[in-house]
Design brief:
Rossmann fold, globular, 2 domains, 277 residues, GMP Synthetase, Chain A, domain 3, 3-stranded mixed sheet, alpha/beta
């Protein structure tokens, strides 16, 4: 299925654009809040990072106990997001979640970008803020978004390389911006192939396996790489076995992964290096 990912800003332009596209394309619109709700079945609440209004606070330090929680939050969120992507053509409104679909080709990544002068004026109109209040709000949100993007994904959300299409609502009407998106998403470049869908299914199974490993006290914290073939139901595990207790390590991995729906066989490949293609 095709995915349009729109980076959410301080204004309502992203919401208006998503509504326009949903009507024209008959795509389903989902938000971060909906993905978080769906991710509860994967235990996202246990990470402590599943707050609805994530930009209302500053991210934890990378040096504290939330480093591992961050990784698990992303795995839970990724699994839920892929569940949505396998069932519908999507318009996702949020902050950089398209990075969790980086290996899935048919994702059109969009950012709306305008001058601060325009953003301040629109906030004054939309929220009734004074000039100083709007200016401060924009500065605060941009700073928190930068800190969160670095904490969660290790990137600067302003980097244009992260997007396929950057649109300026200060210059482009909603219709012009919308038609530009439609032209891109309907092009051959963004049409999912059978191979693309297989990739998405494999990635989804890998994410769910990682969730299962994290949820079990026997395998939580193990540093392994997962490769999955969803069509065959095969999961391969690569990682360095401990010097003592290697058989227990293999037994625990096999037992936990075997409980995941869709897994028919587990192949464990102890190795000196972590990632094996």
């Amino acid at each position: 299925m095709s995915v349009i990912a729109i980076a959410k800003g301080t204004l309502t332009a992203s919401l208006k654009l998503s509504s326009y596209l949903a009507e024209k394309l008959d795509y389903r619109v989902i938000t971060r809040e909906e993905v978080l709700e769906a991710a509860k079945i994967y235990g996202v609440e246990k990470t402590g990072l599943g707050k609805v209004a994530i930009l209302d606070s500053r991210p934890p330090s990378l040096l504290n106990r939330f480093t591992e929680k961050r990784r698990q939050y992303l795995i839970c969120f990724q699994a839920a997001l892929m569940d949505f992507a396998l069932n519908d053509n999507l318009i996702y409104i949020g902050h950089l979640a398209h990075l969790l679909l980086a290996e899935y080709r048919p994702v059109l990544r969009i950012r709306l970008a305008a001058s601060d002068k325009y953003r301040i004026r629109k906030l004054e109109e939309e929220q009734g803020l004074s000039h100083d209040e709007a200016q401060k709000l924009i500065k605060d949100i941009d700073e928190r978004r930068l800190k969160w993007s670095r904490f969660l994904y290790g990137v600067d959300w302003r980097d244009p390389v992260l997007y396929d299409l950057i649109l300026n609502p200060e210059k482009l009407s909603l219709e012009t911006a919308g038609e530009a998106v439609i032209q891109c998403v309907e092009s051959a470049d963004f049409q999912p192939t059978a191979q693309d869908i297989d990739v998405l299914k494999n990635l989804r199974l890998q994410a769910v396996v990682h969730v299962a490993l994290w949820m079990s006290s026997r395998t939580r914290g193990l540093d392994v790489t997962i490769r999955a073939d969803a069509a065959a139901g095969e999961v391969r595990v690569y990682g360095k076995a401990p010097g003592v207790g290697a058989e227990t390590w293999k037994h625990d991995l096999g037992n936990v992964i075997s409980t995941v729906k869709g897994v028919k066989s587990v192949i464990i490949k102890p190795s000196v290096t972590q990632i094996v293609d």
